[in-house]
């Protein structure tokens, strides 16, 4: 007997059980990890479809394998929808080219290096310690090893990106590539200012909107479209699509970007993911997406203010986007034991460095919290206030197991009222 058409439960009960357990965990806990979300059933149906079987190296109309009758249409639909979505909220009119083949955010960023730089060229990005991403030139990343990295930071007074410093460093080091993009930064990015700095030194301006692409598509965060030469993103964070990546660029860079993705870096695109990106883009064009994105930001502002009132200040004093960094420096405890305790209480987030952190990177002083996932469940002001109270209680006595268990029960009760997209109850 072959395992051809037998259910997952029958073929592999161990994995089936683990998936069921994860499904329950995702249902019963508060997902505050800023990079996570809940993909819809529709997105997951596309991800789990037969499109996973097809090889299609190349681009629509120029493939290296036969049998592309439907795949070309799938990829073209994804491209058309992503283009329409980001053109509608562009900062400036722009003839946009879209590539939906990058396997994820990091490979999308590598394609930018391959398209525009030679090994040893200089790149500038926000330092990891200040909220930047590994792929913007960090020493442990290939991007910091094969290229000369000049990181910029944030101001000590207000923890905001110091554009004067960016300009000064850019003039001194003349980078070939300038990144504007963050992974743990609660304020809007001034893409106009980055554009003028890039122009002053002749750099390629790359905007990495991995975290904020859903907000940008909905018009609730300023768009880099029409300003940046190239824009990279994941598709699974605020965008709420499948695990994947995409690149948007000015038409003049289309060929360099496409060649860098394939054959430069990758082989066959993940067509099931491409289809799911098309579905997510369609959902993002729908009537409820803007409301979702606005609620993500409103919830983040509510949560940040409530935490501040409970003696848990956030860096920069608030947030403009979907995330915040709680600074525990004044509490004399690291972020790691608090994150662990919160996880036991059903509140899932990550410990994170705060700018100018006085503790070690593996036990830094901060917590990163994001509202995309809880907002996708339909939670609002009341739930944000409760979250702030629970978090404050846990910070007060993180080793009180009885309390953690009590909060976990309360969290479960609230979650039961807000079924998450894509999760079976
Ligand atoms: C998440 C993220 C990435 C990387 O995405 P992966 O899909 O995890 O590779 C790149 N840049 C930024 C700014 C991110 O936040």
Query: What is the helix tally?
Result: 16
How many runs of DSSP E, i.e. beta strands? 14
> What's the CATH topology name of the largest domain?
Aspartate Aminotransferase, domain 2
Low-confidence stretches: none
CA-atom Rg in angstroms: 22 Å
Ligand species:
pyridoxal-5'-phosphate
Range of strand content: 5-15%
Number of domains: 2
CATH architectural grouping of the largest domain:
3-Layer(aba) Sandwich
Give an account of the 3D structure.
The chain is built from 16 helices and 14 strands. The protein starts with 7 loop residues before the first helix and ends in a 9-residue tail after the last helix. The model has no long low-confidence stretch (mean pLDDT 97). The chain has helices at residues 8-11, 13-28, 41-47, 71-88, 105-116, 142-145, 163-173, 191-201, 213-218, 254-265, 271-285, 289-309, 335-344, 372-376, 381-396, 401-416; strands at residues 30-31, 58-59, 62-63, 96-99, 122-126, 148-152, 177-181, 204-208, 230-234, 245-250, 323-327, 347-348, 350-352, 366-370. It has two domains: 50-284, Type I PLP-dependent aspartate aminotransferase-like (Major domain) (Aspartate Aminotransferase, domain 2), CATH 3.40.640; 296-416, Alpha-Beta Complex (Aspartate Aminotransferase, domain 1), CATH 3.90.1150.10. The strands form four sheets. The protein has a seven-stranded mixed sheet with strand order 4-10-9-8-7-5-6, sandwiched between helices. Strands 11-14-13 form a three-stranded antiparallel sheet, covered by helices on one side. Strand 8 (204-208), helix 9 (213-218) and strand 9 (230-234) form a beta-alpha-beta unit. The longest helix is centred in the C-terminal third of the chain and has 21 residues, at 289-309. It is an alpha/beta fold. The protein binds pyridoxal-5'-phosphate (PLP).
């Amino acid at each position: 007997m072959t395992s051809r058409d037998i259910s997952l439960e029958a073929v592999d009960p161990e994995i089936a059980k683990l998936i069921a357990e994860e499904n329950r965990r995702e249902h019963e806990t508060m997902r505050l990890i800023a990079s996570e979300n809940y993909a819809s059933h529709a997105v997951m149906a596309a991800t789990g479809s037969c499109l996973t079987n097809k090889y299609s190296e190349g681009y629509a109309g120029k493939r290296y394998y036969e049998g592309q009758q439907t795949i070309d249409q799938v990829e073209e639909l994804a491209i058309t929808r992503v283009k329409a979505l980001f053109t509608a909220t562009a900062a400036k009119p722009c003839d946009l080219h879209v590539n939906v083949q990058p396997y994820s955010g990091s490979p999308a960023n590598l394609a930018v290096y391959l398209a525009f730089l030679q090994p040893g060229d200089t790149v500038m990005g926000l330092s990891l310690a200040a909220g930047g991403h590994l792929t913007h030139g960090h020493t442990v990343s290939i991007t910091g090893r094969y290229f000369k990295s000049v990181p910029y930071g944030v101001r000590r007074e207000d923890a905001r990106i110091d554009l004067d410093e960016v300009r000064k460093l850019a003039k001194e080091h003349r980078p070939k590539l300038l990144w504007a993009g963050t992974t743990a930064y609660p304020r809007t990015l001034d893409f106009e200012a980055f554009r003028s700095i890039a122009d002053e030194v002749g750099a390629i301006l790359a905007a990495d909107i991995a975290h904020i692409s859903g907000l940008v598509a909905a018009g609730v965060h300023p768009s880099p479209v029409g300003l940046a030469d190239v824009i990279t993103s994941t598709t699974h964070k605020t965008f709420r699509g499948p695990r994947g990546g995409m690149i948007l660029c000015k038409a003049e860079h289309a060929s360099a970007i496409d060649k860098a993705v394939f054959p430069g870096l990758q082989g066959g695109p993940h067509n099931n993911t491409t289809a799911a990106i098309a579905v997510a883009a369609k959902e993002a064009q729908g009537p409820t997406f803007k409301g979702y994105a606005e609620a993500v930001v409103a919830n983040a502002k509510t949560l940040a203010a409530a935490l501040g009132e409970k003696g848990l200040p956030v860096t920069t004093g608030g947030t403009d986007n979907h995330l915040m960094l709680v600074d525990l420096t004044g509490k004399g405890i690291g972020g790691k034991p608090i994150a662990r305790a919160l996880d036991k209480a059903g509140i899932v987030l990550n410990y994170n460095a705060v700018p100018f952190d006085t503790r070690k990177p593996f036990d830094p002083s901060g917590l990163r919290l994001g509202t995309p996932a809880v907002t996708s469940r339909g939670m609002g002001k009341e739930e944000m206030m409760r979250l702030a109270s629970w978090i404050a209680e846990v910070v007060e006595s993180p080793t009180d197991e009885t309390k953690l268990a009590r909060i976990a029960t309360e969290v479960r009760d609230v979650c039961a009222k807000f079924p998450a997209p894509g999760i079976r109850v």
